[in-house]
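Preliminary data (for renewal application), guanosine-5'-diphosphate complex.
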Amino acid sequence: MNSQSDKSARNELNKWGWNSSLEEEFNRISREELLPGRVATETRGIYTLVSKTGELLAETSGAFQYRAVTRSDYPVTGDWVLYRPSMPGRGLIEILLTRRSRFSRKTAGERTEEQIIAANIDRLFLVFGINGGRNFTTGALERYLTLAWESGAAPTVVLNKADLCTPEEKEAAVLTAENSAPGVDIRLVSATTGEGLKDLFSRAGAGSTIALTGPSGVGKSSLINAWAGQELQKTTAQRENDLRGRHTTSLNRMFLLPGGEILIDTPGLREIQLWAEEDSLSETFPEIAQLSWKCRFRDCSHTGEPDCAVQAALNTGEMEYRRYENYLELEKELKYLKTRQDANAARLESAKWKGIARLRKELKKNGKKS
Ligand code: GDP
Ligand code: ZN
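Predicted structure:
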């Protein structure tokens, strides 16, 4: 490839957020037959990648699958991968490049497994509708916020449907959000009238990746369409799905906005269970983390121990009871998650040792034979 076309190809990648640290990793791996691409959509193991030569369909290679241990080792929307071109417009994914952030939840249902919803996000928009309905509860905000802190992406709370509110209601909604998300960037917008949209999207900057999440019906699709100014062009994978007459709502999609921002639309998640560490909970409830230092016991659960600073703050009214209750609920969920994670880790470990023991036995037996 001559240097001119090499440069424009590089620009094509930069458009999707390719940067110097990815370039470094790519050079370190140094496998000339592999090309970089970013996952735009994923449905049942079929990926759409954007690359310097445009869109292509890809699957993970046999070697990739052999190395993968858990579900989170597989690419998701927003991931950068290295693929081997096969047929025209097709490729085999060989390597997953290091993720700089990952927005995850616990898989829906009984299994204790991480589900990564999107990777390599710079900013996470937590969208709520403030039309007074059940879409904006502080409990939900605190839950999404904990997941956001865990992800490594910077959160922005987006209060949509401002057009349905009186000035007093708007003010109340912002106050509620500020109370549940202290110190976090909060925006009041309307997908219908366009209020606040320019500010919202352009602040992320060209080449940076934004993901939208939040309950169904809060206006995530409307916000994207309003900002893009048109029905966004469907990606190949979606077109193929449409052709097959199947409509997959669980599809993540990655778009380029007119201002050069990269946007990932996450599916409406009916159930969003935590997949996080205690630290992320502390970031959501910084005042409780602060007060904990003054409790008599280092491992105080704040539920009745003597000289508990949190209980004292509840008594004086300094600490809001509702927030305290939600903290306890999320913390209980995290503790339960931790127990299940530990049990899984122990099972994996024991399976590994059983495998080794079996192998030893077999080697011994074979050794005797010869
Ligand atoms: P999503 O499930 O989060 O993607 O939500 P949608 O974008 O599908 O919007 C759900 C409903 O809310 C639709 O009927 C939209 O027309 C409506 N909606 C979205 N944004 C606004 C807004 O800013 N103001 C008003 N009044 N309605 C909105
Ligand atoms: Zn305490």
